Predict the 3D structure of the following.
Amino acid sequence: MQTLGAWLRQAREAQGDTLKDAEAATRIRARFLEALEAGDFSVFPGNDVQARGFLRIYARYLGLPLDEVLARYNAEARNVEAAALATASAEAQTQSVRSTSRTTVSRSHSLPFSASLAHRTSPETLIIVGIVLIILLAVATGVGYLLNRNADEQASAAATAIPPSETTLPPMATPAQPVVTPTFPADLEGKVTLTLEATEHVWVRVTRDGQTAFQGMMTPSQVETWSGQEAIVVDTGNGAGLQVTVNGQPQGTVCGRGQVCTRAWGPSGEVAAPAPAPASVP
């Protein structure tokens, strides 16, 4: 099966779009889109959270199924982590072998010296030298034991942390539960005014009375306001990053962190949101 990055690049090229075209449509910088297509997720600020957010936006733009895109991302991220842990374990084992070898060589060099010294010194000196050698041997043995034990513990911890090689797809995400919305009196003029304040980098689409009023990325502290006669619909890939105010009444966040959700408000309060259009498989 092809990698996630190759799949994204193939879908973009099948649409006849360049990275610059995709950048203009998604408001994601071309270098981040290029990193997604190369499978290099380490370049994103915030790493996992930011990478998932960009993948959601890019998958919608390319018309790819979001669940499968995130499943492939999870599998590739686990494989990268397992490889890093295995490398660290191998380096720890190599360091332990080198330390033990140095201790053994040092011990072997000291023996000829002690044998020749026995022929040139008195019995008292031999006793003292023997005691010193015994102490040194005990210290060297203890150091070697500690080094070996630390290496074994590191290897055991790394082996325990490595996830199974068999890739399993995550369970299908359950629909996000709507956030309880405070009630408020209907606008006297029969219209709805909605304000969004971004607390994180977040993708959002706002539909006013059936027409798209905004679509793209909002940055922290950015505030936007829209007014409509019938309803204003908010569609986002990370509802925790948006604070909503409707007709002057705070409504809290759109939904939970990392959740893809759609909510709508009319002049009298929250109304049923239209079902999102299903993504087409290329």
In short: The radius of gyration is 32 Å. The chain has three domains: 4-64, 77-161, 192-271. The first helix runs from residue 4 to 14. The first strand starts at residue 192 and ends at 198.
